[in-house]
Amino acid sequence: MPVLERPNCSLNYEIWGDRGRWIVLINGHTRTLNDFRSLGKKLVGSGMRVMAFDNRGAGKSVTAVDFSMADFVSDLVALIKHAGISRTAVLGISMGGAIAQLAVVEHPELFEKLILISTVADQLDIISTGKKWGQDAQSIEEKLRTYFSPKFLESNKLLLQAMTKQVLAQVQGGEILASSERQSKALKGFHAKDNLTKIAVPTLVMHGEVDPLMKLATAEEIAAKIPEARLEVIAEAGHLLLAESPENVFKLARDFLLA
Fold first, then answer.
1. What is the pTM of this model?
2. Whether the predicted pLDDT of 131 surpasses 80
């Protein structure tokens, strides 16, 4: 298990593939690099090299102190340089999209393409459900339901149950609650709308049509402000597009990256 030592944190990361152009994958709030295994395998099969990692405060990148959005960006840049990557595409989901926006503006020399999925450019555009991770399966399932479209929930009950068990195990392990609070605290004060016009790389924006946490209008605004950005809307999909529409995510990303 490769790790990169950073201030107050050991970053857990993995690299997949040994040839082709690079892409770095950044996940959302409390999610880990494990979510990217299927997508990463497909991108490698398309001739790319992939880096995925656990943000500090998630998965195996644990930390006992608070941190900021600047720390997230600094971690990303350090990982890219540690791997000897000169230029890379970057894909960010939800909170990962916020990190990616900041990084591309602050370090334009490192990035050649940007993919933003289910994200916002301002913390104020995140719709709070008022639900936090509880200590029991029922409350955890209720929170997870807020991430998905009604159509998906109706036909994927077993997946929801499996995700509930996964999160419950993390809660019982004692890490996810404190980590979730730290990541949420870091997101406060994230305001990047004024920087969108400074993004100077080809950009693809993907968003679920019925995302209940980050409305489609926010994605439309992002795509309108980033020069020459393209918006792709996934019909009838909610927030977690990797779960709801993995083939669409892969095909759109692949075609954009290899164009």
1. 0.96
2. no
